[in-house]
């Protein structure tokens, strides 16, 4: 295990495999015109520990340049790198940073990056290899003048953020068709472009500010827990799902909305054919929204629309108010759904789906359960479940209005 303790201006050449190389705390390695630490393709599986300081001005090679495979670089809390290009660990290498990495161009290039310190560069992190990942810890930051995290060739990418990820052009940018899973508990400053795979954005108390989160082509899932998170999709980019614990209005090009959590919320659809599922046990409002879609902001009142298309609205365990607006809509119910209201049922156009409601299998099973209350038709089901159809005459209800 080579250990370097004295200041030096000579390049360190890593010429062993399965070894540990240590730049000790208090040491300063200043190298010009070439890499400060270099390993060629003949050597692999080394651990490089940087507890001291590396200064490098080479414009071509990285300060730490590891061309072998399966290497790991660890920058300790006392360690730092100040260079034009920081660390290159390749498509199978891992970098763990607890210190400070500052570079004019690229901070870190590796397959996996764990950051508990600071990485700042024009592009802070570039992910290489088919399977990549970044974990950015609390009180840590990855900041790029252009890109915070950039990935262009992977098939699977996992990002977990509890700190700050920032980029002037994009905080996170994927140019590949691979799958990205991004979990945000921290702060994202700048756009997120998740690329063309089947991606997932999961917000767990994180902040996104005015940043737009783009799913790209593929079937994407967005899990949101705050009002105003700006999720986006372009036309023709797959089947996209929003799972929300807060009131939300789907913009264009999203297809499915799922209400979750335990608080009463509202879900607005868009002008497309939407599927809306209520997995929330509170009393929610679900309504088809016939006009242009909009986003809720905290100052707006809570309301729930769907869309002008042909929508499917699934009732949950709470007392829902449902409206499909224009289009041929399906209102679906299951046991334990509570007391629900349909605002705008249209005979011979809309349908009531009871196929998931056990105990009711045909129109004959409903014969004694239908009544009028003022101008409303009331279906009294089992265990206190009720469907009230507003301003609808029970004599207009027929077997063809149901799915059993």
Q: What is the share of helical residues?
A: under 10%
Q: Biggest sheet, in brief?
A: 18 strands, parallel
Shape assignment: rod-shaped
Terminal-residue CA separation: 73 Å
Structural class category: mainly beta
Overall mean pLDDT stands at: 91
Uncertain stretches of 5 or more adjacent residues: 290-308
Question: Radius of gyration from the CA trace?
Answer: 28 Å
Oligomeric state, counting identical vs distinct chains: single chain
Strand content: 35-45%
- Given the structure, what is the number of helices? 0
The total tally of domains equals: 1
Number of strands: 43
Description:
The protein is an all-beta fold. It has one domain (12-291, 309-362). Helices cover 0% and strands 44% of the residues. It contains no helices and 43 strands. The protein has an 18-stranded parallel beta sheet, with no helix packed on it. The chain has a 17-stranded parallel beta sheet that branches. A hairpin with a 2-residue loop joins strand 40 (370-373) and strand 41 (376-380). Mean pLDDT is 91; it is low at 290-308.
């Amino acid at each position: 295990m080579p250990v370097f303790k004295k200041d030096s201006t000579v390049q360190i050449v890593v010429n062993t495999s399965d070894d540990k190389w240590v730049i000790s705390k208090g040491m300063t390695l200043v190298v010009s015109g070439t890499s400060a630490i270099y390993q060629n393709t003949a050597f692999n599986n080394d651990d490089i520990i940087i507890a001291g300081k590396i200064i490098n001005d080479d414009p071509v090679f990285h300060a730490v340049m590891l061309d072998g495979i399966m290497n790991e670089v660890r920058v300790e809390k006392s360690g730092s790198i100040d260079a034009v290009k920081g660390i290159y660990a390749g498509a199978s290498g891992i970098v763990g940073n607890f210190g400070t990495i500052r570079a004019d161009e690229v901070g870190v290039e590796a397959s996996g990056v764990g950051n508990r310190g600071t990485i700042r560069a024009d592009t802070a992190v570039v992910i290489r290899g088919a399977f990549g990942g970044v974990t950015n810890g609390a009180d840590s930051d990855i900041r790029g003048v252009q890109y915070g995290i950039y990935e262009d060739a992977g098939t699977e990418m996992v990002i977990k953020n509890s700190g700050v990820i920032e980029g002037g052009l994009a905080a996170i940018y994927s140019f590949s068709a691979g799958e990205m899973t991004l979990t945000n508990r921290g702060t994202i400053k700048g756009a997120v472009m998740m690329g063309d795979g089947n991606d997932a954005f999961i917000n767990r108390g994180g902040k996104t500010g005015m940043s737009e989160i783009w799913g790209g082509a593929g079937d994407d899932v967005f899990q949101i827990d705050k009002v105003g998170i700006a999720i986006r999709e372009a036309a023709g980019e797959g089947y996209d799902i929003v799972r929300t614990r807060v009131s939300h209005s789907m913009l264009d090009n999203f297809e499915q909305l799922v209400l979750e959590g335990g608080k009463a919320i509202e879900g607005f659809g868009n002008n497309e054919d939407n599927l809306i599922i209520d997995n929330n046990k509170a009393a929610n409002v679900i309504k088809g929204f016939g006009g242009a879609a909009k986003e809720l902001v905290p100052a707006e009142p809570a309301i729930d629309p769907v869309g002008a298309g042909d929508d499917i609205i699934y009732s949950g365990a709470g007392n829902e108010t449902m409206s499909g607006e224009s289009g041929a809509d399906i209102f679906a119910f299951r046991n334990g759904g509570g007391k629900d209201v349909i605002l705008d049922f249209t005979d011979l156009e809309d349908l009531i789906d009871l196929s998931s409601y056990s105990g009711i299998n045909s129109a004959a099973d409903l014969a004694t359960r239908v009544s009028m209350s003022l101008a409303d038709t009331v279906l009294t089901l089992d265990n206190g479940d009720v469907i009230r159809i507003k301003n609808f005459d029970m004599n207009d209800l027929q077997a063809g209005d149901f799915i059993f």
